[in-house]
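JOB MANIFEST
job_type = single_chain_structure
chain_count = 1
residues = 109
[input]
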Amino acid sequence: MSDINIKITDREGVTHDIVAPTDMSMNLMEIIRSYELAEEGTIGVCGGMAMCASCQVYVINDPGLVEMGAEEDAMLAEAFHVESNSRLGCQLHMVPEMEGLEVEIAPYP
C-alpha cells in the first residue's frame, strides 16, 4: 500500500491534510468526495467524465502533475471561475509523484 500526503483547501477556506492512497485507482475528485470536503451534489456531478467542471481545483503546489488532456482543456474552456492554475480533479489520478500536492477547491457555479 502506497499513500501520499496532500493538502486540500475546501470552499470554506479550511485546509485539510489528507492521506490519499495511490493503489486504489482513485482520482482527486473521488478523494474530495470520500473525505466529504465539498457539499453533496456539488462535486463530481458528471461522475468524473470531464463533462461538468464541478470538481475544478486550483493547483497551489504542483509536484509534477501529468499534462492536461484535450477533454479537460475543452471543459475548462467552458467552465466558470477558471484560473491559469485550474485543473479538473477527476482527471488527476493519485500516483506517488503527487506527494506534496496542494489544491484549493474552486467555487461551485
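[summary]
The domain at 3-105 is CATH 3.10.20.30 (Ubiquitin-like (UB roll)).
Helices lie at 28-34, 70-78.
exit_status = 0
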